[in-house]
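User: My collaborator sent over this chain with a note saying "see what the structure looks like." That's all I know about it. Can you take a look?
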Amino acid sequence: MKKTALITGATSGIGEATAKRLAAGHYNVIITGRRKDRLLAFSGYLKNTYPVDVLPLCFDVCDFEQTGKSLGSLPESWQDIDILINNAGLASGLEALDNGQPDDWQRMIDTNIKGLLYVTKIIAPFMIARRKGHIINIGSIAGREVYANGNVYCATKHAVDALTKSMRMEFLPYGIRVSQVAPGAVETEFSLVRFKGDRLRADAVYEGFHPLEAADIADVIAYIINCPPHVNIADVLVLPAAQAGATMIHRT
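Assistant: Without extra context I'll predict from the sequence alone. Here is the result:
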């Protein structure tokens, strides 16, 4: 019997790569995202490429009502969720606090923290009832270190780190494993979103070195969830070989 994985933010980057990786490993997948056209196109691709079932759900994890309506009314055949991957997240802006935009702050807090909380609150009871499951939160090196002008984004990823640790304690009696994967520099749409579509500025982030690719993180996630049931990889920091810290990258 195939296992089922739920992946938030699955229409690009790490979420998209993880959905492909797990579908290739014969997991049925629930994929979520805000961009309906892209979500449905990706769902069609997965169904046509891999021998798995796919359930696309279009909603915004920042909205508790939308999230509850979409995930709280899953068809019975989709309620046995084995894996939850809280991947949806973003950075918006890169300014010192006094020049920061409150709308950017709200967007990051709503997505990176509240979105993770909302989805987990709705899915965890399914796992608790079954006395098994695995939750993987996608953090960041920014949850380990802070850097100038990264203030609120770093704060949200520190929150992900803290929430992961507390969830591991709280869900321990129910046989639910909780892990965190914290990537360093990954070349996805991350910087394009942070710089609000400024392609030149976004591309410059990855110049002069070989950054991680989304598929690299998907491989780490696949390894974590396929460990034996008595093993929990609690926390993984993944960096490109050219990176030694949040702000230390060797460029050639």
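A starting point for your reply to your collaborator: Helices lie at 13-24, 36-49, 64-71, 102-130, 151-170, 190-194, 199-204, 214-225.
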